[in-house]
Design a protein that fits this description.
Layout (H helix, E strand, L loop, with lengths): L11 H16 L3 H15 L8 H21 L17 H11 L10 E8 L1 E5 L14 E4 L8 H16 L23 H12 L13 H10 L9 H11 E3 L4 E13 L4 H21 L8 E4 L6 H34 L2 H24 L7 H27 L6 H29 L6 H32 L9 H12 L3 H6 L1
Antiparallel strand pairs: 1-5, 1-6, 2-3, 4-5
Length: about 500
Amino acid sequence: LCPYSKSVVSDDSVIMRQESAERSGVEKLTMSERFFHERFSPLICGDEKSKFKPGAITFLILLISFAGWMISEATSLHPPSEPEQFFPQEHTYNKEQTTRLRDGWEGQEDAAYLKIVFMFGITTTDRDGYNWLFPEYNRGLVTYDLDFNIKNAESQRFYMETCDRIAVATCDARACKDSGTLVKPGTEVTCLIRSMLQFYRTYHNDTSASVIPEDKFDNVAFEFFTDDTKMHEGTLADRMAKYLQLLGRDELRYNFVAVEFRSSATAPMTNTLSHELYDLHEELADQLRHEAPAGMKSLFQTDTNVPGVGWTWMRVEDALIQNLITGFSICFPVAFVVLVFATGNVIIALFATTAIACIVAGVLGAARAFYGWDLGIAESISGVIVIGFSVDYTVHLGHMYREAASLPSREEKTRFALTYMGTTVLGGGFTTLSAGLILFLCTLMFFTKMAVLLVWTIMLSVVYSLFYFMSLCALVGPEGEFGSIPFAAIATNLALRLRKPGFQEAV
């Protein structure tokens, strides 16, 4: 199939027989196979007499340069600097929201702001036996601080001091907007022990008390939450719900107490802004924890919002990015091992792995360079998916290169791989590309983003497999048994024996 064999054969009769076989083989090729054999392969293999390959060198220079640019763009990816949009800008949802904001609408007031609690009395959650495959079962047991005692006078004073510190705390994080305070202006810190103390002073005729006496604490708490003749703030059910959230106890003791307030930051926020605000709360919590008396050092802060906003969503975004990095650290070595088994040659597997790395960098870099996207949900998920798509084409060409074991030169092997597998690569790329194009019809931006990333993946996979990977094989591809792995070769030969005889004859 490749005329380079003429240069290594001296016997005229052998040359004539080979030329006859080549003509016969070419006549049996399909139109697309003939295109790769007669038109495309010379671009890669170059001139048969001088063996100079300007096409392969040019393709490598261009594609390596492009990959370098894309790598620089991909490394500049960072978590979103703006809240992620899930609908197009012209969608009715966004138009309605823009109109309301222009008219001064502020949503559901307090509900739009983060709700934060500073909690005392809980040390950790014991998740021994938790199975992430069944998250609704055995979610874990709360571990309480056995030294915690809110009835103690010193603990009550520190709790109320915490309320005061939070109330006057400043906020220089960008998420706090123009308020400059940690607590939303116009709202108050829910300081339960102070409210109970005021209740005690009023109804127990002890106006000078600075704390609730330890021996009267239980009775005061019971009256505070249940006596409708003295408390008129909401229904009994509302007060008991608040009791369970802010002051928890069992039959023996009080287990925890919390300080609750509305943050001056609205949700949802970008990952960067969330981290700024979270670090500010953590800094305050660390200061209070350092000053806390014994029994109150289990202090920690968290938010009580739905999982789609607040610290939980911040952690989800962090996990997506970390999983992307973890996915790369797992997928690339696994892909290399699979390629070694599929091709039977470590050199071909190495070439294919570099092609895959260029494809992945190209997709992520294109998202940054051409679309200005950040490392959001779609980008983090697709980053690992890309590896699976990009392996497909190089592994077929690499395997076909290895199949041409009887051909002596790398040029002949490259031509053989392109002739018999080039059509398959283009066909596979076309069908997968068509599946990606369908996603452009979706409304949610997550799916249109996936469409863009999938289309880029397929285009780069086809380009890098046919032009980059094949150029490497034509220039420095292994010849003979160089780079072959014995155990992989055994597996390859076993597979060949199970194939139809016609294919082996073609080789």
